[in-house]
Amino acid sequence: MSLAAEFGITLTQHILRKQYGHRDARGQFSQLLTQIGVAGKLITAQVRRAGLIELWGATGEINVQGETVQKLDRIANDTFIEVLRRSGCVAAMASEEEDEVIEVPGPLAGDYVVAFDPLDGSSNIDVNVSIGTIFAIYRRQDRNEVVRSDILRPGREQVAAGYIVYGPSTALVYTDGHTVDCFTLDPSCGEYFLTRENIRMPEKSVQLSINESNEPYWSPWVRPYLDAVKARNDAEKRRVSSRHVGSLVADFHRNLLKGGIYLYPTDAKTGRGKLRVLYECNPLAFIAEVAGGAATDGNRRILDIEPTGLHDRTGLVIGSKSEVERVAEFVEKFASGVTGG
Ligand code: FDP
Predict the structure, then answer these.
(1) 3-state helix, strand, coil in the chain (%, to 5)
(2) ∠ at Cα 316 (312, 321), nearest 5°?
(3) 189 C-alpha to center of ligand 1: Å?
(4) What's the gap in Å between 232 CA and the centre of ligand 1?
(5) Which of 49, 76, 119, 171 is deepest in the core (most CB within 10 A)?
(6) What's the pTM?
(7) Ligand 1 site, residue 275, Cβ cutoff 6 A
């Protein structure tokens, strides 16, 4: 076997293979996905050095070149924006780190709009725990100008979505609405290789991810739901395990591969959730659905939420379909005041 045949399929080869199935494709979508991969490599390089920079920064927050050490989430944000801006594929962007929409004017403006969280799980950066970039891709609606509805639109209109987890290895997962595929970055050659094709989220939910210290703010259905999940564990010999990284993207990635549910319920007093609709919940919900899972805010499908602001928040229940449906039963039961049984 030749050396080339021993390699896996690279991200670029996979994207091109898919593009050839669309005869009228002009290649801009493929180019955009490839450039997101490039941004992921650049951010990986920074994440891998973060511990070292932190050590240098500890002596006065100045790096070896005499510059103030920037926060990694700012670096990731600037990197993502600049790579996408130069790609020629994007007309506008919305980022967790930016108050307003970032428009790409002139000849560089492309056919797509991207909403992203440059570095999800940022409270885990300083302690060397997995973090990630999450992105949602839409086709722009008006060729001449960026309109409000290019950005503020329901997640069901996404044409692609994905995330890059910076963990023990860097993994890029994306969906084009047909399959969910995972690529792992080989640091020795700087290339992503296809490592999991057409991922299906296991129907059996074996992982439970929730920050239980939020209990004082929960709606009445949450505790009974968790008790029911745990009660079943005894009978079924510990069917689920609690696993909560505290980086949504890492928790989701694990549950996607192993089967599980992640919950960040709305605050019962304010009725507000913590997680952002446009660049956290929508892309992960799209991936979950394509992989056979589900995502709701408790009962309403995440992808049907009509956002009114760039940084709108929602409750999130995402994971194996049957488990998300079971949550909806608890929500309904407690909303209707039927609490017995
Ligand atoms: P972080 O605040 O560290 O950026 O919305 C971001 C997020 O992390 C998620 O990644 C994570 O799951 C969640 O918030 C954690 O929030 P709590 O600390 O309130 O549990």
Answers:
(1) 40, 25, 35
(2) 140
(3) 33
(4) 28
(5) 76
(6) 0.92
(7) yes
